[in-house]
Amino acid sequence: MPEKSGPSESPAPSDLPRLGPRSINAYNRLARELAAFNYVLRHTKASGPVTASTLFTLNGLILSARRLFRRHPDMPVFFPVDIGQPMTLTDLNILVARLNAASLHFEERYAHLQGKLGRAVRRIG
Predict the structure, then answer these.
(1) What is the pLDDT of residues 8-23, one digit of tens each?
(2) In this model, does residue 122 exceed pLDDT 50?
(3) What is the full DSSP assignment across 5-16?
(4) Which residue stretches belong to region Disordered (predicted)?
């Protein structure tokens, strides 16, 4: 007898509709921005607090992620950061790692997205 999937389980990728062109473009923009953050965080020796302009850019990334993930209740929710408060590089690394993990999880759901962010992360890693 086949097992029934419970309400807490994620739907299989084949059960999900394909993303439309606008969502695919939004995801591609998010993946490129995340790749840029990953590159800078891994390949530079930055020190000190993160500047307001970087936090403003990060908030744009968070807004994009929120729009993409809002219809998926099992995806994490990201809140904008206060650009008036300094952020440490450690906090920025943690937030970017969470965005990466959520984006890769989102990518796994839709077969036509698979590999875009993963390739970018491996290429700069």
Answers:
(1) 555 555 566 678 888 8
(2) no
(3) PPTTSPPPGGGS
(4) 1-20
Report whether pLDDT(76) > 70: yes
- Choose between 110 and 38: higher pLDDT: 38
| Three-state secondary structure call for residue 52 | helix
What residue type is 55 in one-letter code? Answer: L
Look at residue 89 and tell me if it is in a domain.
Answer: yes
Query: Is the residue at 105 inside a domain?
Result: yes
User: The domain containing residue 30 runs over which residues?
Assistant: 22-124
Q: Does 103 fall in a domain? A: yes
Number of domains in the chain: 1
Look at residue 13 and tell me if it is in a domain.
no
The set of long-range contacts for 13-16, using a CB threshold of 8 Å and a minimum separation of 24, is: 13/108, 13/109, 13/110, 13/111, 16/109, 16/110
